[in-house]
Amino acid sequence: MIRATTAATMLLFAGTPAMAQLVPSFAEANAGASTQGARASATAVTATGPQDPASGAGGTRQFVPSGPPPAIPALSPERPLAPRERQAVAAVNRWRLRACRANVDTEGVFHLRQGQCEPTVVCAPGHPCDIAFEPGEYPTSPADRGDSRWDVHPRFSGTGAQRTLHLVVTPSDAGLDTSLVVRTDRRVVSIRLISRARDYMPLVAIDHPQRTEAAEWAGVIANGQRQAALSSVSSNPCDQAPVVPPEAFKIGSGRYSWRPVQVYAVGTPVGQKTCIEFSASVGSVGLPVLIAYGAGGGEEVISYRPSGRRFVVDGLLDKAALVAGAEGSMDSISIERRGYR
């Protein structure tokens, strides 16, 4: 019983680094009392070491590792690349790693042009990054990310032709580096995602250089066409071809210098206009007042804009009258669109 206890005590002391130096002397002092089995048990947990300088005799001491065990690789060993494969990877890396020309607009949106390099977006935990695509562009499949520690959610802004796809990207940790592949109806975009503890890019736009330039020119041309149309309308809209011909209007009788020679309507970008045209001999003095009659018989004085020898009236007139003179001796000429009741 005493011998077994001695062997167990040796094991207990030898299991702690602080008592490792005491184990050899303790073992020698009890060598006569230990059995062959106890010595075998002690030897099973110890290793032969150099001579103990304190005792001057050889002894045993526990093996204590000097550091952590070697790391186990997460991936299998790589196979060597063939010369052609190395050339292809080098060419792609030159494109991926070259500097991208980018700019930040007045609203804080960081614009990256696709095709110059691989776009890189830096995000931080708790700070979502918004990646915007072109207006009218929509995804054809879910985005593929190389690391599940990134959250990617699609969102949209705008309506109609200006409806824009946004990807809201948020990492769950710092120090992450992966790729995000997005497929849309217009292109395939590969975006490198990097996470930092505090650095992040809140608003990012991935522009397509050719389409962006074409869209800019299209916008300028469309704006010029609108301005030209408005300019023509504001100068003399009645010079356009009528959408409601003169035959559709009935003009009352009367021998007045301001009796219209014809009435018609034209279409403009801002709506229809009714044109009341007078003879070339009409002057600018003593022009009549234009009164419109509603469906219920009510009367309303209508404003018009003189343009040469025409009155330009907003909207399509159904029933109206030109009135001149003082109360009690007024002259009038009726204007009515045929088929209106």
TrEMBL record:
Pfam families associated with the record: CagX
Gene3D superfamilies in alphabetical order: 2.60.40.2500
Region feature Disordered, mapped onto this chain: 41-85
Matching CDD domains: VirB9_CagX_TrbG (cd06911)
Record's signal peptide: 1-20
Keywords: Signal
Assigned protein family: Belongs to the TrbG/VirB9 family.
Record-given protein name: Conjugal transfer protein TrbG
Provenance organism: Dankookia rubra
